[in-house]
């Protein structure tokens, strides 16, 4: 299981999303045996969590855009996931 998680963390957001879509298609097809369906569901949940975490990080980075005096974005600040920004 830890090996699966490290493999997911190596995927880009787009790769993880494509794999998640593939898992969903396979599950929706109804042609997968029960044991494999359970494994696919677990993999899909791991992929969903990874994608959501990346989206949350991206949103936090976007929210850190600092506006200039004219109200337009002047620069961005790197997001520190530990809250030390």
Describe this entry's structure for a reader.
- This protein is mainly alpha-helical.
- It has a single domain, classed as Helix Hairpins (Orthogonal Bundle).
- It is about 65% helix and about 5% strand.
- It has a two-stranded antiparallel ribbon with strand order 1-2.
- A hairpin with a 5-residue loop joins strand 1 and strand 2.
- It is elongated, with a radius of gyration of 18 Å.
Short description:
The protein is mainly alpha-helical and 85 residues long.
What order do the helices and strands come in, and which of them pair?
Blueprint: H1 2-10, H2 13-29, H3 34-63, E1 66-67, E2 73-75
Antiparallel strand pairs: 1-2
Beta-strand content bin? 5-15%
- Number of DSSP helical runs: 3
CATH architecture: Orthogonal Bundle
| CATH hierarchy, class | Mainly Alpha
Shape: elongated
Low-confidence segments: none
Determine the fraction of residues in helical runs and give it as a percent range. 55-70%
Strand order of the largest sheet: 1-2
Examine the coordinates and then state which fold CATH places here, giving the name of the CATH topology. Helix Hairpins
> What is the domain tally?
1
Summarize the helix and strand pattern as letters: HHHEE
The helix/strand class is: mainly alpha
Mean pLDDT: 84
Separation, N- and C-terminal Cα atoms: 33 Å
- Tell me about the biggest sheet? 2 strands, antiparallel
Could you tell me the number of beta strands?
A: 2
């Amino acid at each position: 299981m830890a090996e699966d998680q490290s493999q997911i963390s190596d995927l880009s957001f787009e790769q993880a999303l494509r794999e998640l879509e593939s898992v969903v298609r396979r599950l929706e097809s109804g042609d997968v045996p029960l044991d494999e369906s359970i494994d696919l569901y677990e993999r899909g949940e791991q992929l969903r969590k990874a994608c959501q975490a990346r989206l949350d990080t991206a949103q936090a980075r976007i929210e850190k855009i600092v506006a200039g005096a004219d109200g337009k974005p002047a620069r961005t600040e790197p997001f520190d996931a530990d809250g030390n920004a």
